[in-house]
Amino acid sequence: LLSYLSFLCRYFRWWYKKTRIEKKSAFIDLLCAVPLQQIYGCPLGGIGGGTITRGWRGEFCRWQLNPGLYHYETVIANQFTVCLRCKGQTVYQQVLSVERPSTLQGWNWGYCGHYAFYHALYPRAWTVYELPGQNVVLTCRQVSPVIPHDYKDSSLPVGVFIWEVENGRDEDVDVSIMFSLQNGTGTKEDGSGGHWNEPFTFEKGGERVAGVLLHHCTRVNPFTFAISAREKAGTGVTHLTAFNPAGSGREVWQDLLQDGRLDSPTGKSSLTEKGEVTAAAVCASCRVPAHGHRTLELALAWDMPRIHFGSKEKLHLRRYTRFFGSGGDAAPALSHHALTHYGEWEKKIEEWQKPILENSHLPSWYKSALFNELYFMTDGGTIWVELPPDCCAEDLQGPAGAGLSHLLPVLREYGRFAYLEGQEYRMYNTYDVHFYASFALVMLWPKLQISLQYDIAVTVVNEDVQPRQYLMCGQTAQVKLKNVVPHDIGDPDDEPWQRVNAYLMHDTADWKDLNLKFVLQVYRDYCLTHDSLYLRDMWPVCQAVMESELKFDTDNDGLIENGGFADQTYDAWVVNGASAYCGGLWLAAVCTMCKMAEVLGDADIQQKYTDILSKGKEAFERMLWNGKYYNYDSSGSDTSSSIMSDQCAGQWFLGACGLDQGEFEV
């Protein structure tokens, strides 16, 4: 109890200094946790360009445009509104939202949720609206460019809304879909002044899109939204450049009600004053014949090409700037590309998902989880940046000189990738848990996994001798030791890659699992990619971390021992002596060292680790097997005989590499 109270005191002192004096957010905030809201649906956007999450009721409710930093705010002006007209008269006009807000009261709110249905299979979502009493059904299909093995379109900060309109009436109906959007993300910066909107059109290859640009001119990380629609035969696109989302909105409503179109004023809006908020709208309209079907296509794009992390020390360019430029003027081209290519995206998405969805041996819940949990690949505070053009190998290798011959070519071609441990555990590429999530990355975007591994390898051979106090134990130690895998590559509110190990709870230099997880991933990556250049580059790093790990085999029985504290990913669980989890990971890593040595023709290393494996397997069985399962650890404590579900983690990784049988079976 005393040690726990000491930790709380240390944490509070650190939290107060960080949040109240330095005016930064805590990487783990135990005092101001974000309340759970079960409102979230499928997020918008590709990988690394920021994300905007919509709720399953259609609201725009979570924002991650500044890299790695989240803002939870439903912006009520961001809506889709439908207008139906028959024989020149508006017969129905409704905001497609169940909300009844205190602003924009000149709009018709309170759509009955009984007449709508939501379904998501990431990266797509469908909302069906059966308009009550109208005999018209709308289906909004939301699509984001998240496409396996695609390293261009998958980086784009866009989302497309395809509205399928089914007319069950005996007469033609004119249908308009209006998309309104506030200039900003619902923060106080929306009213900071200096923001402005302007209409745009963009034509290329005979295809034309039109809409409004909303320029959000903040001092750090300015950006531009674009709301747009595709012009085609039978489809008209109109717009409203600016309106006040804090007012009644009556002028917008009446404009649409009058003729199913917006006035489309020319020219730019004026700059907003301090305290003033602005919004814009775009409207797509078409005539749907009796018992017929038509499609309206709208898009949302956002362009924040040049970003700073929290320290504001370095400028980074997002991945999509390689294809669309970094001048901050790409939103029209992004909108056009999205509206003219989403069909190709959907075809590739269906080709990827169809074999799994049609596999009758897999349960439905598993299929749903397999795809829908992938949302974190984009909405995990994810960042994907280009390497600076003047960057050289020496800049990347660090003072120790990592000797990674293909580091520069890999990062130059595929950029740098990072995602958070969690939206409330704000550390990039937290390696002990990336170990599990990495399967999604290496199977769907293997080049990003390779890039991430090169970044980790560089940090392994370098050190950071700066001292700091760790919050759990209160002891002081240096930030990063040489030849030890880091816990993470940094905090987005600081300067990731430059300053690693944002995790302050424990000194992870003594964790038993991080080094092993690097070795296991190297061989797993090689098995799936057959990238022999990668394997050769990583081999010296694997030897270095395994040599560092050997010091934890204190009795030379071929099996490492835990140190009597929470020295692995389960960082509130004390482990003492030989353990099922870390011991199993150790034996699996030793096994892959044997296999890598065999592949690379390193007979001495192969023999060294073969001998260790033989001893270690015997010690593992003798010290941990109780006749039914492996004990949690060998300490003989009250918890020692607990069954740990993750005791087979090492064996699981070997199975993924085809090494769980015969001589390599651990």
TrEMBL record:
The GO molecular function terms of this record are: beta-glucosidase activity
Highest taxon of the source? Eukaryota
Organism whose genome encodes this protein: Dromas ardeola
List residues of the Glycosyl-hydrolase family 116 N-terminal domain. Answer: 41-345
Q: What protein does this entry describe?
A: GBA2 glucosylceramidase
Residue intervals of the Glycosyl-hydrolase family 116 catalytic region domain: 415-661
Give the InterPro entries listed for this entry. Answer: 6-hairpin_glycosidase_sf, 6hp_glycosidase-like_sf, GH116_catalytic, GH116_N, Non-lysos_glucosylceramidase
Q: Which GO terms describe its biological process?
A: carbohydrate metabolic process; central nervous system development
